[in-house]
Amino acid sequence: MNKEGNNNVNGSFPIFFFSGTGNTWWISQQITEALQEQGLDVKAYSIEQTTPQQAAALIEQAAGVGLGFPIYGSDAPRIFTDWLKELPILKEKKPTLGYVTQGLWSGTGCNFLEEVYREKGLDLKWSQEFNMPNNICLPKFALMFPYVSEPEKWAGTLEKRKKDVLELAARIAGEIRYRQHNDLISRASAWIQRGPFRLMHDPGRTLWSVDESCLGEKCGRCTRICPVENISMVEGGAQHGEACVYCMRCFNFCPTHAIHYWGASNERLEKKPAYQGPVKEFRPELICERESGKQEN
């Protein structure tokens, strides 16, 4: 944890995020509100609704910028890294907040992307990780990632995260540099976890299947909310392609629990509901471009 220096942040501060099942969406809303209370002009944008070119135009006019995503196996979702690669190089360096949401431990959080940020003109001044309710309710991972389905049991976690966000907002407004878990041990542990995850979820294959309870075109929600349009309807129901980013959105929001991971049974979901966001107000359509369309400059 490092604290130092002035960042001259005063003015607009757009935030761009990706969220699969609502955790990063919720944190982004909390950061937005906290920074607004500090006097900054802040708005949060889903990267599913905002092109990299549109984002760059907003960042060029801003005093600073925030970038957030959920951590998957100490790695960033491919949809986020692909979006970041397409972000035009900025004319001037911008003080940048990088934040991630996680279930247990992410190693370095977003710090492993620092070099990519720097190449784009994003000066990573603040980085923070937020532990959120676990959205991995897959039967195969029941022992590794204990899943709690009762929202009332998340209340304490969310209250703690609100306090963390207020502290972060005060650091940003006070121009205090803060980098969480940006040390050698954290980097090493993240590297150990990131390699196997990338190998297991290598693009070019799918680990998903559907059963006869799929409603097909009568429903089709999974095709509409998939962030990379990786699901199509064929005879017999939904079919996953080979571009999955494993955001868990289709699995958690399927109304009949017809989607299976590695062929495992979903019987457990009959006793414990799937994870559908940290608050009842969340629904994927809020951040999905196919409902709202791309943001205009």
TrEMBL record:
Gene3D superfamilies: 3.30.70.20, 3.40.50.360. InterPro entries: 4Fe4S_Fe-S-bd, 4Fe4S_Fe_S_CS, EFR1-like, Flavoprotein-like_sf. The keyword Lipoprotein does not apply. GO terms for molecular function: iron-sulfur cluster binding; metal ion binding. It comes from the Bacteria. Residues 206-236, 242-264 form the 4Fe-4S ferredoxin-type domain. Keywords: Iron, Iron-sulfur, Metal-binding. The keyword Metal-binding applies. Pfam families: Fer4. Signal peptide: none annotated. This is 4Fe-4S binding protein. It comes from Pelolinea submarina. The lineage of its organism: Bacteria, Bacillati, Chloroflexota, Anaerolineae, Anaerolineales.
